[in-house]
Task: structure prediction
Amino acid sequence: MKYVLLAVLTCFSIVGYAQPITSTLYIKTAGNPAKNYAVNWQVIGTGKWQLKSQFNHLDIVVKQQKDSYQFSIQAKQSVNFNLQNFYSTAFQYDQVEFLMPGLWYKKNARSSLGAPSIYEAQNWSFREDRLSTPLTGLFDTQSGSAITILRLDSLTQESLAVPGIGEMILNTHSDLGSLGFGQTDKNAYLQFGYPYQEAPKTYLRKLTLAPETMAFVSLNKGEKITLNYQITKSKTENFSHFVKQTWQYSIDTNQPEPLTNAMATKEVKAQLSQFYKQSFLTHDDLAGFSGVHLRTDIAEKKAFFEIGFVGRVLLNAFNALEYGEQVNDPQLVKMAEQIFASYLASGFNQQGFLREVVNYEHPNPELANTLSIRRQSEGIYAALLYMQYQKQKGEDVTLWEQKIRHLLNQLKTLQNKQGAFARKFSPESEIIDDAGGSSPSAVLAYVMAYKYFNDVQYLDVARHTADYLEHEIVTPAEYFSSTLDANCVDKEAAFYTAMALYYLALVTENSEQQKYINLLEQANYFVMSWYYTWDVPFAKGQMLGDVGFKTRGWGNVSVENNHVDVFIFGYLDVLNWLAKQNGDQRLINFAKVIESSMKSQLLPRKGQMFNIGKVGYYPEVVQHTNWDYGHFGKGFYNDIFAPGWVVASLWEMLTPNRAAQFLQPE
Result:
């Protein structure tokens, strides 16, 4: 098999309209390499073409109506085929930026080697279920022109593909096609085809590119299928605006609806609270919840506590405390109090930083010697929630205040002249990783500290970081390296940037507030671009499909980690608040989709365990495409998961307006 693009793209003029599409047909017989055939688009009427090639066992007709293209494919004889189409443009490849939502942004130049990026190849094709919307698009930086190709069909059927790479005749029908982009003669093109082709490499697992893949669908004599695409052209201001208008267009076209079987918030919290009761443990000088590096089928207890990404021990403790007192559950209250007491006594190192990761079972000095702005900030966030809550009850939190002030002052010394914080550093404040992608997580902590301590120096730190966000992240549209286990464009970088700007907008006024709202508007649509606007199909035998899992409302993770999860925390508040500022009702509607999707699916409970070992341990690495984090692949979870952060995320989603109530108390 060879990844083919014809060098000459023939255009057919019909009533003054140029048709810039060329096609290649691949035919495979069992046990033999596929043959490829150039396809000639022959005009047979206004807006109608017959696709002709040397292979004559397929009757292919294309009808165009405005921006919509319908391919009708009928077999004259039994055949195994793959049809790839290339839409040429006059834009120079070097001057365009590409968008494939949830997978590819610009040139993916921030990615590590081994992930799909411009460093690996210039021409790429991906199966549609990797994308949060089955769309490929480009933005020309010189003219402001944009083109997108969107698959319009309802994709409901999938087939198991063996061996997963190379040429594969699918054993049953699959609706999945592929989308992509590339260059020929220095100009950019967009690619769309059916069934899928992944080229020049297939992304199998983290930083692991395998040989290319081409799937073949079988048609018996007389069988017919139709494929529908929409090719749109527009003008836009910049890449950020292109992302915004593409997301709005995707929502308007796909019109995702909330799931109707969502559980009540009360019931979801009751089930999630079982995680607290089953995971609590004490070990030596700390108490916490065992919520990281667990086997999905066992959900065992491990003496491994993580303060922020990915365990969120203190945030879970606060949620357990607040909930325990709300429902009069003394067991939860006692657990939470033990955790906070242990961290007050033993949760800080000698320099005053939080002990981020403590693994009693397999001690690793590197864990203690590598700190991060993200985990420190997430720990401060949880501590401030706890301190305010206790203070409002009349409890003495003086010792907590002293430790958190010292920690805030320690972190402040790490802020550079541009306003960024290094992603990783040592307890002695030596920089280990100076990437600034995690910087926005600090804004949440410092804005909250400003309100709690009524100390403007903390707001000034947050403002300074916002300057960095404006000039280095939002304006150039480079949302990267927020997660601690990847170096690439990722959802959480956009997420935390938007959250930071939301927090600042809540505590400022007039022109300064409007500035943050404007920046938030840009960042928000990058966040939204990661969340699925459609439901990926699964094959029979793939557990997620067997239980009826719907991907709408779930977010892809990053360029490096190609799975979906429920990372949402308090972001629905941002969507609802921003919608009031910019009038985009789509944000409110999609917030309902996200909430309903996460409240109705994969929550382990009696009689509905979804292959998870214990009640309440909501799954994490949900593998929705041909990719795995190490085990099992599409339709299953990885065998190791971190339910600690997942429970914390869902709990915050189910506790609306937490930030506003903290920052704007009545």
